Amino acid sequence: MARPRLPPAKAKATGSDVKKKARFESRNAPAVKDSIGEPFAWLNEKAQQAWREISAEVPWLNASHRGFLAIAANIRGRMISGEDVGVQAMNLLRQCYGQMGATPADSTKVGIAPDDQKEPGEEFFDE
What we know:
The protein is 53% helix and 0% strand. By secondary structure, it is mostly helical. The chain has a domain at 38-109. The protein is elongated and about 50 Å long.
């Protein structure tokens, strides 16, 4: 089994991001090249609402994520409207979130930190 990835914050604190610069440069590259766009017209009203909510929650989504986002929005839209979605649909939703980097574990692989969130101890490492 492969070793877990070193989170960028820990790499910065320990100096690993300087020692192994090439490894961490790609994680900080901007991932968004083109926007996610508007929801598909064939999605119902609740699914379109879910599309907009997920897009706001996961800012690095781009056009390559539209298929996964449509599936996730459809399931989440059913949840919003109070329908029973079942275990299989919830598992599929979790998998879609993972593929889009929308889970806490997968978001570390994306390399984009929220603008309003400051790394703990960052003031001590600024040059």
